[in-house]
């Protein structure tokens, strides 16, 4: 294992999440007072089932869905075997004559082979027998799992009815925040968790999203091998459901995984002394799982093809242009996901950003393809018009061979051509569209801003927002590519993975081992360039990239206004909200982009609906409708200087607005466009009145988060212009190898490229931003700007050294790594060698007990 190297260091414990005096608390309840829900052993699985039952709209809907999945599996396998072995296609295609005594017409049953012939053909085909055996075993496994889940979810149904006092008929119209509030409340009565007197919203999120937070963190730190540089294709991303399944199998719940149960990392992975042996063991597991994927590749590939055929053929026939539509890629969902963000919250954000994202991608239609598509559509339309006219004149034309097929193909051709013809009323405004997208997705690499009109930016955004056809194609080839990635790419990152889980795992009392990034602790994982200057002690590799910690913290605080964070975190949230409110109400706007644009987008968003219309927010109801509803009171409605006062202030504003005449229709329109629990709209007047406040509150929370995300990105951009005169980020060009080191670390930075920030997740070289001003005078008088200028360099711990390459006789690169961290940090005008903290000897912790960082 000598070829493994790492840059990870041990992470100190984070802040306390328990009320004072409740550390190591174990609640004792008399035997007679215990309820059915007292001390649930596996709270992770319990809360996940509670959440799943809510998202699936109750027990009956979930049960029917599971039954139809079992039937669907039987149908796909059985129908495919029948088509391959029990149909005489010569009769079906009229290549064989059939004698009939009573009729001259050929019927469909005439093409079916007799049962004995069909069964004999199946028995003679070894591959079909193998597929049937594998499918049967898999179906029986699904059946046993279904029966087990029915029993478990029946218990969850009882929990909703008896403990939460919610019937299954009410569940589809209740928001998750209401369900979560009741769970927090019944903790005092039922003590479902005996390690803490009170549950917090963060505790519940941690248990539901424990493993997903790890995956988000690994993608954020570019630890997973999902980005590749392919010959002729350039930078590409490959991340499919099959690959994701294998990652989770290896890390979390498979045989020999890193976790011994749902909530605890194995003790040996918490020590640093045996890291090389553990990395070797993990590499061996990855190899065997990759080989298993390779052996099962034919079966999985056949299943993927058949499932895609039965799933998408009808859709393509009905809507041929659906393959030209786009969807958020699996990688995009993971990259854009906040820490501690549930599935429905993520999909609500991405759904709101779908229309502006589609408009942005449509701005880059090729003029050459447009000309060709118009003419091809004209010729195909002419032929189709003639065939349709002849069919109307005499329907016997349809009986002519290939006429019906020609009509179908011509219709598909016209539909495909239309997808390459832009709307004649479309206005080319990529920068404004990209900002509208940012308001919803909250994350964007630095080098995209100001370069929205470039094809490089468009190609990188297409990695997040891909064609549906590309998504289907990637899933089809996933059984072939997945074992290659596991064997040749993931294995080389074994040591980094081991160190990642050791360094970024903390134990929270009452929750278990969680990803430290999910604590959203500014001090441990904040980034100085994202308003955390002077508040963070994180080194380069401890910092979350792209402002993930700060944005996740704001999103969680706004989504859960009753959550009471620690004092340091509360100060950060309050200070940021005060600044946003001050920018909204002041006459001057220091975040102006240039002299020609005196008002920033954040200011426009907060001022009123007139400016929103000018930047194409019209298609996004969550921002436009609420800005119109709030009008001049929008700024005061978003004051919310603390998590609790936010909820109280909005409730008061909404109750007063609800009594105002003419306001109901405006809010109804706003909620009709909401992606968050908008199911209440059709539930009847009584339920509608009961859910009105919560729905509007969720929309205000979504709008408030969009405003804060835009503000933080704007301030980050302004601060980066000043800070980049002193520092330069360097990112890896590819994640194909764990020991890949960027070329910039080995040499003096390019004087033209060093003034431009590169995103960790999109490490692409961009043109020289010589036209971008480097002055930070626009924010020199603000609080965060002063803190960033004074304490940015002092708050960094530089663990990195340089890495030199030498080529051996065999052509292999021999690297001499001196502790270069992920995203190495290079000072302008300085040589490669640096002083850094020394690593402990590998055997120094062998004789010591596991160092578990506890957060109470």
UniProtKB/TrEMBL annotation:
What compartments host this protein?
A: Cytoplasmic vesicle, Autophagosome membrane; Endoplasmic reticulum membrane; Golgi apparatus, trans-Golgi network membrane; Late endosome membrane
Question: In its keyword annotation, does this UniProt entry include Phosphoprotein?
Answer: yes
Composition-biased stretches (Low complexity) = 763-802
- Composition-biased stretches, type Basic and acidic residues, lie in 723-734
Q: Which GO terms describe its cellular component?
A: autophagosome membrane; endoplasmic reticulum membrane; Golgi apparatus; late endosome membrane; mitochondrial membrane; phagophore assembly site membrane; recycling endosome membrane
Give the superkingdom in one word.
Answer: Eukaryota
Keyword Phosphoprotein in record: yes
InterPro entries reported in the protein's UniProt record: Autophagy-rel_prot_9
Entry's Pfam families?
Answer: ATG9
**Annotated catalysed reactions:** a 1,2-diacyl-sn-glycero-3-phosphoethanolamine(in) = a 1,2-diacyl-sn-glycero-3-phosphoethanolamine(out); a 1,2-diacyl-sn-glycero-3-phospho-L-serine(in) = a 1,2-diacyl-sn-glycero-3-phospho-L-serine(out); a 1,2-diacyl-sn-glycero-3-phosphocholine(in) = a 1,2-diacyl-sn-glycero-3-phosphocholine(out)
Q: Where is the region Disordered?
A: 654-685, 722-856
One GO term under biological process is:
autophagy of mitochondrion
Could you tell me the membrane topology recorded for this protein?
A: Multi-pass membrane protein
Q: Which keywords does the record carry?
A: Acetylation, Autophagy, Cytoplasmic vesicle, Endoplasmic reticulum, Endosome, Glycoprotein, Golgi apparatus, Lipid transport, Membrane, Mitochondrion, Phosphoprotein, Transmembrane, Transmembrane helix, Transport, Ubl conjugation
> Per the UniProt record, which residue ranges are transmembrane?
59-84, 122-140, 286-310, 364-390, 402-421
Task of the protein: Phospholipid scramblase involved in autophagy by mediating autophagosomal membrane expansion. Cycles between the preautophagosomal structure/phagophore assembly site (PAS) and the cytoplasmic vesicle pool and supplies membrane for the growing autophagosome. Lipid scramblase activity plays a key role in preautophagosomal structure/phagophore assembly by distributing the phospholipids that arrive through ATG2 (ATG2A or ATG2B) from the cytoplasmic to the luminal leaflet of the bilayer, thereby driving autophagosomal membrane expansion.
Q: Which family does it belong to?
A: Belongs to the ATG9 family.
> Under what name is this protein listed?
Autophagy-related protein 9
């Amino acid at each position: 294992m000598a070829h493994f190297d790492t840059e990870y260091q041990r992470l100190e414990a984070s802040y306390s999440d328990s009320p004072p005096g409740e550390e190591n608390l174990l609640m004792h309840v008399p035997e007679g007072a215990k309820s059915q829900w007292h001390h649930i052993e596996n709270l992770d699985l319990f809360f996940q089932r509670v959440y799943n039952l809510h998202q699936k709209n109750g027990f009956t809907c979930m049960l029917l869905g599971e039954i139809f999945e079992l039937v669907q599996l039987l149908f796909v396998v059985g129908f495919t075997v029948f088509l391959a072995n029990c149909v005489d296609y010569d009769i079906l295609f009229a290549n064989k004559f059939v004698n009939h005594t009573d009729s001259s017409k050929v019927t469909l049953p005439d093409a079916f082979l007799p049962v004995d012939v069909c069964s004999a053909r199946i028995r003679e085909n070894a591959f079909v027998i193998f597929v049937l055996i594998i499918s049967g075993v898999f179906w029986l496994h699904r059946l046993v799992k279904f029966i087990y889940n029915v029993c478990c979810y029946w218990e969850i149904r009882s929990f909703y009815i008896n403990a939460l006092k919610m019937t299954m008929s009410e569940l589809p119209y209740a928001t998750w925040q209401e369900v979560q509030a009741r769970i927090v409340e019944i903790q005092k009565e039922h003590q479902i968790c005996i390690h803490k007197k009170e549950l917090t919203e963060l505790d519940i999120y941690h248990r539901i999203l424990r493993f997903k937070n790890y995956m988000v963190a690994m993608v954020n730190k570019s630890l997973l091998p999902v980005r590749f540089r392919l010959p002729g294709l350039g930078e590409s991303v490959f991340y499919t459901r099959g690959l994701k399944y294998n990652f989770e199998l290896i890390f979390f719940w498979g045989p020999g995984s890193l976790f011994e149960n749902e909530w605890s990392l194995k003790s040996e992975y918490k020590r640093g002394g045996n890291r090389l042996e553990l990395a070797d063991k993990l590499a061996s597991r990855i190899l065997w799982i990759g080989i298993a994927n390779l052996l099962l590749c034919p079966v999985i590939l056949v299943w993927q093809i058949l499932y895609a055929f039965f799933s998408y053929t009808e859709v393509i026939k009905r809507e041929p242009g659906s393959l030209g539509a786009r969807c958020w890629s699996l990688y995009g969902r993971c990259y854009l996901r906040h820490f501690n963000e549930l599935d429905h919250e993520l999909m609500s954000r991405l759904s709101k950003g779908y229309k502006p994202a589609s408009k942005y991608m449509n701005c880059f239609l090729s003029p050459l393809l447009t000309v060709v598509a118009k003419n091809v559509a004209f010729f195909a339309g002419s032929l189709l018009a003639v065939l349709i006219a002849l069919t109307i004149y005499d329907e016997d034309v349809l009986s002519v061979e290939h006429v019906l097929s020609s009509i179908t193909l011509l219709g598909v051709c016209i539909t495909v051509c239309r997808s390459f013809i832009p709307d004649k009323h479309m206005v080319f405004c990529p920068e404004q569209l990209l900002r509208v997208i940012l308001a919803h997705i909250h994350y964007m690499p630095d080098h995209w801003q100001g370069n929205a009109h470039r094809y490089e930016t468009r190609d990188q955004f297409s990695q997040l927002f891909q064609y549906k056809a590309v998504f289907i194609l990637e899933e089809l080839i996933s059984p072939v590519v997945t074992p290659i990635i596991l064997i040749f790419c993931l294995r080389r990152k074994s040591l980094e993975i081991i160190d990642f889980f050791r360094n970024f795992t903390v134990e929270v009392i009452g929750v278990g081992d969680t990803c430290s990034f999910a604590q959203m602790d500014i001090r441990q994982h904040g980034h100085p360039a994202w308003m955390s200057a002077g508040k963070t002690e994180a080194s380069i590799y401890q910092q979350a990239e792209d402002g993930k910690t700060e944005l996740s913290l704001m999103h969680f605080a706004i989504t859960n206004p009753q959550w009471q964070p620690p004092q340091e975190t509360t100060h950060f949230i309050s200070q940021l909200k005060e600044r946003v409110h001050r920018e909204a109400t002041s006459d001057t706007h220091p975040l102006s982009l240039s002299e020609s644009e005196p008002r920033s987008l954040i200011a426009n968003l907060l001022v009123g609906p007139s400016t929103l219309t000018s930047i194409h927010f019209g298609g996004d109801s969550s921002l436009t409708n609420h800005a119109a509803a709030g009008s001049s009171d929008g700024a005061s409605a978003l004051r919310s200087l603390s998590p609790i006062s936010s909820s109280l202030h909005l409730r008061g504003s909404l109750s007063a607005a609800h009594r105002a005449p003419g306001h109901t229709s405006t809010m109804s329109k706003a909620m009709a466009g909401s992606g968050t629990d908008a199911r209440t709209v059709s539930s009847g007047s009584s339920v509608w009145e009961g859910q009105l406040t919560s729905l509007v509150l969720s929309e205000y929370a979504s709008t408030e988060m969009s405003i804060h995300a835009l503000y933080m990105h704007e301030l980050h951009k302004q601060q980066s212009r000043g800070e980049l005169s002193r520092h330069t980020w360097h990112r890896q060009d590819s994640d194909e190898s764990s020991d890949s080191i960027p070329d910039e670390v080995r040499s003096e930075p390019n004087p033209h490229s060093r003034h431009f920030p590169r995103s960790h997740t999109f490490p692409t070289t961009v043109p020289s931003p010589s036209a971008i001003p480097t002055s930070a005078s626009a924010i020199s008088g603000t609080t965060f700007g002063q803190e960033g200028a004074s304490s940015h360099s002092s708050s960094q711990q530089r663990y990195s050294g340089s890495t030199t390459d030498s080529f051996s006789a065999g052509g292999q690169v021999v690297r001499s790594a001196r502790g270069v961290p992920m995203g190495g940090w290079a000072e302008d005008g300085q040589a490669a060698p640096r002083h850094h903290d020394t690593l402990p000897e590998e055997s120094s912790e062998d004789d010591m007990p596991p160092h578990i960082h506890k957060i109470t």
